Fold this sequence. Notes:
The protein has helices spanning 22-29, 38-55, 71-79, 89-97, 114-123, 133-145, 185-195, 215-236, 262-283, 296-299, 333-337, 426-430, and strands at 7-9, 15-17, 20-21, 33-37, 59-64, 83-86, 105-107, 127-130, 150-157, 179-180, 199-205, 242-244, 289-292, 303-315, 319-324, 343-345, 355-360, 369-376, 384-388, 409-413, 416-421. The chain is of the alpha/beta class and 440 residues long.
Amino acid sequence: MNARKSLKVNGKGHLEIGGADCAELAKQFGTPLYVLDEAHIRAMMRIYRDTLEREYGNGIVLYASKAFSCTAIYAIAKQENIGVDVVSGGELFTAMKAGFPAERIFMHGNNKLPNEIAYALDCKVGTIVVDAYSEADLIDDEAQKRGMIQDVLLRINPGVEAHTHAYIQTAKTDSKFGFSISDGTAEKMTEYLLSKKNLRMRGYHCHIGSQIFEKQSFVLAVEKSLKFISEMKDSLEFEADTLNLGGGFGIWYNDEDVKTDLDGYADSLRTLLDAVKTGCAHYGLQLPRIALEPGRSIVGEAGITLYTVGAIKNIPNVKKYIAVDGGMFDNPRYCLYQAKYTAVLANRANETPCEYVSVAGKCCESGDLIGVNMNLPEARTGDVLAVLSTGAYNYSMASNYNRNLIPPVVLVKNGKAEYIVRPQTYEDLTRNDIIPEYLK
Length: 440
Ligand code: LLP
């Protein structure tokens, strides 16, 4: 099961998350249902925050809220005294609605829209990470209109190829993100940002990808970034005072992944911070403020999705399909990345798995699968199926495909669950629909 303690099998043979019986949760709230364990989320936020504080001092942990965004998660991040990263006007609005302190918000995006930039300045977000010339102009103009100076970082591409799925790699040379160090564009852009009167250029941001286990890739990105900082100090007399190292630490989805406990995440972070200290000493740089942006590792293993098993189809000598009441509309990650998950029959969790099945969704699409070769006891219609490690990039990538309803989210604390995202209704689906007069 997952690396931390939030999941266990109780005396009734039912799966429990954060002390709540999953079979009971399915009865109480219905399925499909996203369930998040609050203690796990807080423990992850704290391990990053405390390790950074203890081992380095000058830094900020930003929860990368693209992994899972709703008002309650910003409320938790606020209580834990960390920052957040947002990547759209919608995420920013959600954070503001939750009363999140704007100065602890970093705004990202490779193509921030003019209205998103204006809104970010109205909110007075702490830092904007610039990823285009046009953006630099827009932020400068909007800041000037408001008589403000906006703190910015430049997103650089250190050219590190991390070992992860190609779609979630972001810092190889061919990427829509960032300004490349190697071809000189990052230097030119640094100069440009320094020339802007209403921007305060603070430093750099890099993010090499997601679901990464090798520390070496992160260390390499640190080394390349510090070398670049030192070059900018020499050539432009600009010494960055902030270095944002992005997110990317991997989590456990299935037994091909490394199980990492809290100490393991602390260790990985320590390795990065050591690389920063060594690099700065080597180049004679002052230790910059370090920002980190973990998303998946904060919420991923904290979450599970509960489904009810419906149709079961056995194709002799081919395979067995177990269909559930969810699918690619609540978890598109198999379709997008062939992501592999672990599933458990939540109401018979102490039974030994005895067959490999494909878990299918209910969308009109053959590729609508939650997983293939999932090892389960013989499932029966009506069983509750729990898919583990779905806290990150599931709810946040959900859709209303086939006009299915996006499942609600409950947060479990001390064995009790409460909605943090209410169930959608069919009325919600047609709320914005309009039939033009001539069609009536
Ligand atoms: N910072 C930046 C600039 C990012 O682009 C990302 C993720 C993060 C931080 C957080 O990375 P994390 O700690 O979560 O690995 N939808 C994909 C993941 C896309 C990640 C995009 N950027 C998936 O489902 O695997």
